[in-house]
Specification:
The chain is mostly helical. It has a three-stranded antiparallel beta sheet. It folds into two domains: 11-75, Arc Repressor Mutant, subunit A (Orthogonal Bundle); 78-215, Up-down Bundle (Four Helix Bundle (Hemerythrin (Met), subunit A)), CATH 1.20.120. The model is unreliable at 1-8 and 226-234 (pLDDT under 50). It is built from nine helices and three strands. Residues 9-76 form the HTH gntR-type domain. InterPro entries: GntR_C, TF_FadR/GntR_C, Tscrpt_reg_HTH_GntR, WH-like_DNA-bd_sf, WH_DNA-bd_sf.
Length: 234
Amino acid sequence: MAENWTDVPTLPAAVADWIARGIVAERWPDGARLRETEIAAELGVSRGPVREALRVLGERGLVRLVPRVGAVVNGMSRDTISEVYELRAHIEALICRSAVPRLTDADKDRLRGLLDQIIALRNANRVDEMLTTCWEFRETLYRPSSNRTALDLVRSLRTRLHSIPQVLRDDPQHIALAMTFYVRVTQAAVDGDTSAVERLVSEFMIKTGEQAVAAFRPGTAATTPARPGTPAWS
């Protein structure tokens, strides 16, 4: 399965993925200039795909396109990833504190139905759809919360993390972790066990952060991007 941000494994998307991994692995520190000619030479591609890749990274917030300078790293380090997941662990547990007591019978039925969908999609190996449904589950769980500011902040932090390649989509350990989490948190939510839901959500986010950081260990950016028509990072 491709780990590009798009479903089409184009060469610019693969190059963007490769550069993004290098940024997170701190090959290029915050503020470093990304030179099209050097990247193109290292990858054995023309400057066109590199230029397009840098434009994509600019849209994602990982680089800044500075006039008369070019692309400059606007870093997302492994430390930053860890910090974002730790922050989400605290905020999402806080949301659960006010959300779980307000869950209606309809909400609980919806959570059970979404869990069934998650399991079915996992069994069908439709991981992208599964993870999308996982977030829909969490939105359903959090929606009754009275803390709208916290909800907005979680969505913003999630968007920030999605500026990097989604390396956990193909990690069997993360998929196993997710499956265990959603089964347990569904039961706790249906039972109205607020403390258990808080604990499960916090532990899940911390562990997910640890898995993401491990996936971006130094050296992961050394893989040459796949050519169009082949899965990147297979």
